[in-house]
Amino acid sequence: MTTHRSALSNSLRAIGFGAATAVALLTSQSSAFAKAGIRDAEIEKILRGYSEPIFKAAGLDTNAVTVYIINDPSLNAFAAGGQNVFINTGMIMTVDTPNELKGVIAHESGHIAGGHLARGPEAASKAEVPMLIGMLAGIAAIAAGAPDIGMALLIGAQSITQRELLAYSRDQESRADQAGVKYLNATGQSPRGMLSVFDRFAEEEAMSGYRQDPFVRSHPLSRERISALQDLVDKSKFKDKPDTVQELADYAMMRAKLRGFIETPEIVLRRYPVSDRSASARYARAAAYFRGADLDRALPEIDSLIAERPNYAYYWELRGQILVESSRPKEGVPAYRKAVELAPDESLIRASLGAALLATEDAAVVAEAKTHLKRALQDEPDNAMAWYYLADAYARTDDDAMAALATAERYYAIHAFPQAMTFARRAQDKLKEGSNDWQRANDILAIAQAEAAKQDRDDH
């Protein structure tokens, strides 16, 4: 997780979805923290571990449901735009246990499985999906080096407030509670965490709108609802089942990592003083020292963690990030290579390695960079920044045709359809007609033309 200061930092990867707030990019290819949204390989893996069993119990396709992390300190989580769950960092950093966060995920899964979003008011249903798509595309565009396009998309999306779109009815809330408890029971997990979180929010229901967390405003709460949820918990045979030791350890590390990158270094060091030698404290301090450009302290902290757990890919990833984004890419590349070796299926880390290799300015490693970027794009074809770096790699070998095609893919991924058409045409002019790459450029051109025309009709 890194601040984009170096040449590598100037064009970091797209960062998921964000709330309607100002965008202030902060960090890196595989751990991109921003005011709007976050992507991080380690945190996403932990959240997948929490959510996928619940999604399966809800009868949802785990490949179709996406969990987005929003960099916002308020306590909030919501389902919107079809099969999407959005969780604020404030929620993750405030709730005390994995079971509580699983309860929130189970509740939001209840909204998705119950089709509550599709049954909302007509105005909201029409506005919600364009708002979410616009926010996602805008953030991706800014991160992918197209700030003008990104800000235009964000400004348009910000005209619709979350509260107008996500005010579920009390009946829907109760149904989502019941469904969430059912999913937790089906996966052998306690529903007590859900009750604990919602009981906390119920205390806020009488507060003014200014003081309430967004979750309270968008999810109607009442004492009657809490009482009904208490009855469901009391009937669960798993009500007293605790989180495992490993789950608690992973949760502590996830929260420490978030705090290390999001909170000011001063707050991080007060929360995790140097006298605290726990793994989570050292993780948080490594990030905080790095953000403060204090590598003499950041590297010993992460190295101490690697010494204790040398086969943990995400420690190596952070070490690589610290060095690469501190303008020492040749020193960071070995750490990224080790991370990829340990976690070969993590596309975000592999894309980071590709970017790091290019940052060395060594022509001898461009082919390796291409290999990693292509592999990352096989797993995540809409990774706009991987396309950006792949275009750069092609340009360095004077392959203008493929550089144009990769740039067309990049703009296509962020819904910048006029730009996608421009580069698709350039690619077609240079590629052999009828070849697979020429046909892909033709597909991008055709789809982008149709989408651009649709956007133009919607605008008028």
Q: Tell me the CATH architecture of the largest domain.
A: 2-Layer Sandwich
Q: Give the averaged pLDDT, no decimals.
A: 83
CATH fold descriptor of the largest domain: Zincin-like
Beta strand %? under 5%
Count all strands and give the number: 5
Number of helical segments with 4 or more residues: 22
Helix content: 55-70%
Largest sheet: 5 strands, mixed
Rg over CA atoms, rounded to whole Å, is 23 Å
* Domain unit count: 3
- Fourth-level CATH superfamily of the largest domain: Metalloproteases ("zincins"), catalytic domain
Low-confidence stretches: 1-35, 119-129, 158-166
The helix-strand sequence is EEHEEEHHHHHHHHHHHHHHHHHHHHH
CATH class of the largest domain: Alpha Beta
Anisotropy-based shape: globular
What does it look like?
With 460 residues, this protein is mainly alpha-helical. The chain has three domains: 8-235, 2-Layer Sandwich (Zincin-like); 246-398, Tetratricopeptide repeat domain (Serine Threonine Protein Phosphatase 5, Tetratricopeptide repeat), CATH 1.25.40; 399-460, no CATH class. 63% of the residues lie in helices and 4% in strands. It contains 22 helices and five strands. The chain has helices spanning 41-57, 89-94, 98-113, 122-143, 147-157, 162-165, 170-186, 192-202, 214-218, 223-235, 245-262, 265-271, 279-291, 295-308, 313-324, 329-342, 347-359, 366-379, 384-396, 400-413, 417-430, 436-459; strands spanning 31-33, 37-40, 66-70, 77-79, 84-88. It is globular, with a radius of gyration of 23 Å. The two termini are 41 Å apart.
What's the SSE blueprint?
Elements: E1 31-33, E2 37-40, H1 41-57, E3 66-70, E4 77-79, E5 84-88, H2 89-94, H3 98-113, H4 122-143, H5 147-157, H6 162-165, H7 170-186, H8 192-202, H9 214-218, H10 223-235, H11 245-262, H12 265-271, H13 279-291, H14 295-308, H15 313-324, H16 329-342, H17 347-359, H18 366-379, H19 384-396, H20 400-413, H21 417-430, H22 436-459
Parallel strand pairs: 3-5
Antiparallel strand pairs: 1-2, 2-3, 4-5
Helix pairs in contact: 1-3, 1-7, 3-7, 3-8, 4-5, 7-10, 8-10, 11-13, 12-13, 13-14, 14-15, 15-16, 15-17, 16-17, 17-18, 17-19, 18-19, 19-20, 20-21, 20-22, 21-22
